[in-house]
Here is the input.
Amino acid sequence: MRRFLALPLLAALLAPTLRAAPATVTIASRAVPRSVTVGGRTLSLNGAGVRYYAIFFRVYVGALYLPTPTRDARTALAEHGPDRVAMYFLRGVGHGNLVSAWRSGFRRNNPPAIRRALAAEIHRFIGLWTRVHNRDRVFFDYVPGKGTDVRLDGKSLGIFPGRRFHTALLRIWLGPHPPTHSLKRRLLKPR
Here is the structure.
């Protein structure tokens, strides 16, 4: 009789350790998926963190999804499979601030030769942004052979062909002068 009572007790004690990991991780009150599907492939959350402005203001939660987790920016930039950068906005950002941030990000993290070669794409990309609102979700999905699909709350704003543009875009977060170094570290901290 004791054996029959001990089995349910043992099962109850082990149950918490046998549960699957949650499908999301919460960062700054935003649920960030642990995996996503891009181009028919499942990608894992490599890392995620908060982009702060002037130390106090939380702007967005950034997340990086890769086929293979890495802690090295060069490895992430050299990846040729699909990937995603996600921005989960925590506050609204106006047109002027968005345009300024994108211009600065491309300028500070890409050599002049690359910026000249991609001038038309960069200009078109910057022209997409009017403003974003609190709770907006922006995804930059790269699919080999297709390019970078820029999506705002599920709606495609445009596709930018080729890997070269996507690498220049990724350098905004993974290059030498990211929006904040703490965000870069978090993006490169596999979860």
About this structure: The mean pLDDT is 91. The helical segments are 2-18, 73-78, 95-109, 112-117, 119-127, 163-174, 181-187. The chain has one domain: 23-187.
